[in-house]
Design a protein that fits this description.
Elements: H1 2-21, E1 26-28, E2 40-42, E3 49-50, E4 54-63, E5 72-78, E6 84-90, E7 95-100, E8 103-109, H2 113-118, E9 121-128, E10 133-138, E11 141-147, E12 155-161, E13 176-185, E14 188-193, E15 202-204, E16 211-215, E17 217-219, H3 221-225, E18 228-236, E19 240-244, E20 249-253, E21 257-262, E22 267-272, E23 284-288, E24 293-298, E25 303-308, E26 313-314, E27 330-334, E28 339-347, E29 350-358, E30 365-367, E31 371-372, E32 378-379, E33 382-385, E34 391-399, E35 410-419, E36 424-430, E37 439-440, E38 445-447, E39 452-458, E40 464-473, E41 479-489, E42 495-502, E43 507-515, E44 520-529, H4 547-575, E45 611-612, E46 618-619, H5 633-644, E47 653-654, H6 655-662, H7 668-686, E48 692-697, E49 700-705, H8 713-723, H9 728-735, H10 750-770, H11 776-789, H12 794-806, H13 810-828, H14 836-841
Parallel strand pairs: 31-36
Antiparallel strand pairs: 1-13, 1-17, 2-12, 2-16, 3-12, 4-9, 4-13, 5-6, 5-12, 6-7, 7-8, 9-10, 10-11, 13-14, 15-16, 18-44, 19-20, 20-21, 21-22, 23-24, 24-25, 25-26, 27-28, 28-29, 29-30, 32-34, 33-34, 34-35, 35-36, 37-39, 38-39, 39-40, 40-41, 42-43, 43-44, 45-46, 47-49, 48-49
Length: 843
């Protein structure tokens, strides 16, 4: 039976893998265009959809960023009785409203802005014509339910966006994206429109073949797989490129002007300079996000010019003494120590492995002494760094072991980690040498959460080359190609390419430069849609597989799956094993929802603590705005050092300890200066949260928030331990947020995590022993909180399995126990002796 299941999963996975990776959906043209040009999706253009009893409408939704107005109808459901159920977005309230007939139903909900604009959000509307009830679920969370006589129609017409039907005509719609519209009846899938087209005005239902009609469609798939030329222009002299990531502005500096390209609006502006600035070949530029100024650098002569935005002029004229020896070096600004680093390069027949460091605001250049693994001299490498600027990755390049161009130069395919804090190189891996050699554009985009990178490769052995986007792992030597290629004229002392990512509009931007013979530079800018819900969009083939072929393959896969399933059942019957009662997978007991008449709108009050440490580190200001991003990794670690060493039972932290943790190896003077500067930055952020005290008492720093106005979950945690340790419900509600400082790892933090984990296991373990018959749903939460502290806690695993069985989730219980057995053996090298049936019986 297991062989059949494994083969089944492999077969279906192979059939579905293409679609699982692709970014698809329908974009609705809405604002700032004529009414007749706005997008409409009509699921039943010919005849109404017939429903009996209960039905559900489900779909995935996101909004397009950077529109002034988002008011309008997401969908309208109308019936044979001329009744309507609508979902409307109210831009002032930043909330969705469900309308029944001519009145607000009482159901309203909001979706966090980051999720609304950058992720797919699954919305489901459940209606029951017999009980006349209506409920809404968003991302798996039940929002509310009402009873209304409007919920009674059986012949439905469903329209998303603009509605061109005479009785219910409307052209107000939000600028939205939509995919995977599904309609269920009696819990069974009846229709599924994936909206996965590349062209045309129709989309077929995968279940019945029924055709949905789209007016003025904008299909997403092409925008995720084909680069678009956004701009092309010529500038005087040589050009240098840099970016202000905070505003999404790309700067292109040249002899007589400074060009700004705004990634969010796709507009370009040029500002003439008061005095011409010589821009020598090989010039480097970098934007400093701390002082928000643009820098030009000539490393050979250690010259630096800063752009004055008020005077429209550079602080000095750069005077190159000779042709640069640092072509295609990798530059980045490190927030960790507010310095600019330049690595590698090529010139005068030699490849470089030097690391230069320049600190803005000073005239000091440092040739950094590195340790660790050998860094092969190179150029044409890609560099990306994390947000903190304390870690950079250098990918590939072209160079030689000795640095001499005459001694076996070759392409490199290693990934090197540059530790800014410790000033070391470490080889992460080496990729297998490809059949077709390639080098890399100067930078790459990192996704440290997924441990992935995005870079541009090109053949560096030809003039007529092309840039290919790839996605690779920061842990394993593997990568995949994405999207189409971009034409790239390559000549190393005339060409350059840079890759940028702007998360606010989910877009990648490539800027290519090519110096022409008349002392001008050709600038080309290409863009590609690139978002969290379409990271895997692959490069399209020369002749993409037609959708009907894909659907035929899916149908064949389902037939084979049913055949294999029948064989498996027959095999089980032949074994004549005693029947085991089980519940259907993913079919939990229906949730009881209280029904209220039309009246006050359903809302959920969310408490915003000043600082949240259980789960992901989060800080909010007085108005409840999330200001976590204001904390650089260095400021975050500094804050946690001060705060955690000041909790009850601790007596603060010394300056020496802070220096040892944050600035090891630095002189006392440098460390003290860094501490003073960063304390000022930290205070400016904390001032937004409320009253606090930071004092130095007996040579030790102490930090605490003042009064009840600033709430932290850790303070509430210790209050519970002191005043009401038996209030398990309150403790579980707090711990459900997640493990203490999830995904935050420092060597010094381990003891704090261990202390809290020990308290949690003791208190919750005592509750389990004293209350073995507690409500299963609550017992699940208790066990989860214990497993946050110890993922192999045997009692927690057994009680969780028993709770799942009580909730009729047998499959989930067995899967949990199987995972526990596997992890237990991997950790301890021994098999856990208790079988599943015995484990749940002995709770």
């Amino acid at each position: 039976m297991y062989r059949y299941i494994v083969f089944l999963l492999l077969f279906v996975s192979l059939v579905m893998v293409c679609q699982a990776q692709e970014g698809y959906g329908l974009v609705f043209a809405s604002k700032n265009i004529a009414q007749e040009d706005r997008t409409s999706l009509d699921l039943a253009p010919e005849k109404p959809i017939q429903v009996k009893g209960s039905y559900s409408l489900s779909f995935d939704l996101s909004f397009q960023p950077f529109f002034r107005s988002y008011f309008g109808y997401v969908f309208r459901i109308t019936d044979e009785k001329r009744q309507n159920i609508d979902l409307i977005y109210n831009v002032r309230a930043k909330a969705f409203y469900v309308v029944t007939g001519n009145a607000f139903s009482g159901i309203t909900f909001s979706i966090p802005q980051d999720s609304l604009f950058h992720q797919w959000n699954t919305i489901r509307l459940d209606a029951d014509n017999e009980t006349h009830t209506l409920s809404v679920t968003v991302n798996g969370r039940r929002i509310g339910a009402i009873r209304s006589p409007v919920v009674s129609g059986s012949a439905l017409r469903i329209c998303f966006g603009a509605n061109y039907r005479k009785t219910f005509r409307t052209f107000d719609l939000p600028p939205m994206r939509l995919k995977d519209v599904r309609l269920f009846a009696g819990g069974e899938l009846q229709h599924h429109w994936p909206l996965d087209q590349t062209q045309g005005t129709t989309d077929k239902d995968l279940v019945t073949g029924q055709t949905a009609q789209i007016k003025n469609p904008v299909w997403m798939r092409p925008a995720f797989t084909r680069w678009q030329l956004a701009d092309s222009f010529i500038v005087n002299g040589n050009a240098a490129v840099s970016m202000d990531a905070a505003t999404g502005t790309i700067y292109i500096s040249c002899n007589d002007s400074l060009y700004r390209y705004y990634c969010y609006t796709h507009q370009k502006a040029a500002q003439a300079q008061a005095l011409p600035q010589l821009s020598p070949a090989g010039l480097h530029a970098v934007f400093n996000p701390v002082d928000r100024q643009l820098y030009q650098l000539l490393p050979d002569s250690q010259q630096v010019a800063v752009y004055d935005t008020a005077q429209h002029a550079w602080s000095r004229t750069l005077n190159p003494q000779h042709v640069t020896g640092y072509w295609h070096s990798n530059l980045f600004f490190s927030r960790f120590d507010s310095s600019i680093y330049m690595i590698g390069g090529y010139g005068d027949f030699r490849y470089k492995n030097e690391v230069h460091c320049y600190t803005p605001g000073s005239s000091h250049w440092e040739l950094v002494t590195m340790s660790g693994d050998t860094f092969t001299p190179r150029y044409l490498a890609a560099l990306g760094h994390n947000q903190a600027g304390d870690t950079a990755y250098i990918l590939g390049g072209y160079g030689s072991t000795t640095g001499d161009q005459l001694l076996n130069p070759h392409n490199l395919y290693d990934l090197i980690l540059f530790d800014v804090k410790r000033r070391t190189f470490r080889t992460v891996y080496r990729m297998k040498e490809p059949e077709e050699q390639y080098a890399f554009a100067g930078n790459m985009v990192l996704d440290t959460r997924r441990q992935e990178y995005y870079a541009l490769t090109f053949a560096n052995d030809r003039m007529n080359s092309s840039l290919q986007l790839i996605r690779g792992s920061l842990k394993e030597p593997e990568y995949t190609t994405m999207a189409t290629a971009i034409r790239y004229d390559f000549y190393d002392i005339r060409s350059a390419a840079r890759l940028f990512y702007t998360p606010e509009n989910d877009e990648l931007t490539v800027v290519t430069l090519f110096s022409l013979k008349n002392n001008t530079t050709q600038v080309r800018i290409h863009t590609l849609q690139f978002s969290p819900y379409a990271l895997g969009a692959p490069a399209p083939a020369d002749k993409p597989t037609p959708q009907y072929v894909v659907r035929i393959l899916i149908a064949i896969g389902l037939v084979v799956a049913l055949f294999l399933l029948a064989l498996g059942i027959a095999a089980l019957n032949r074994r004549k094993q005693p029947p085991v009662a089980s519940a259907p997978v993913n079919q939990p007991k229906p949730e009881t929802v209280s029904i209220s008449p039309v009246g006050p709108m359903v809302s959920v009050t969310v408490a915003y603590p000043g600082v949240q440490l259980f789960g992901h580190f989060t800080v909010t200001d007085r108005e409840g705005n999330d200001i976590t991003r204001a904390f650089s990794p260095l400021l975050k670690e500094l804050f946690l050092l001060l705060y955690l060493h000041s909790i009850p039972g601790r007596n603060g932290i010394s300056s020496e300890k802070i220096h040892e943790v944050l600035w090891p190896g630095r002189s006392v003077k440098d460390a003290k200066n860094n501490r003073s500067v960063n304390l000022v930055k930290l205070k400016s952020i904390l001032d937004k949260t409320g009253a606090y005290t930071l004092v130095k008492d007996n040579e030790r720093w102490m930090f605490r928030f003042e009064g009840p106005a600033v709430q932290t979950d850790l303070d509430r945690y210790y209050q519970l331990l002191r005043r009401d340790p038996g209030n398990t419900a309150a403790l579980v509600e707090l711990l459900k947020q997640g493990p203490f400082l999830q995904e935050t790892e420092y060597p010094w933090l381990d003891k704090f995590k261990a202390d809290i984990a020990s308290h949690n296991i003791e208190l919750l373990g005592h509750f389990m022993e004293e209350n073995p018959e507690a409500a299963p749903a609550f017992m699940l939460d208790v066990c989860d909180c214990m497993l946050y502290a110890d993922s192999l806690h045997e009692e927690a695993v057994r009680h969780k399995c028993r709770a799942l069985v009580a909730l009729r989730q047998h499959s989930a219980a067995r899967q949990l126990y199987a995972s526990f057995l596997k992890e237990y053996k991997n950790t301890y090298g021994l098999s856990y002796e208790m079988e599943y049936a015995e484990a749940i019986a002995h709770c």
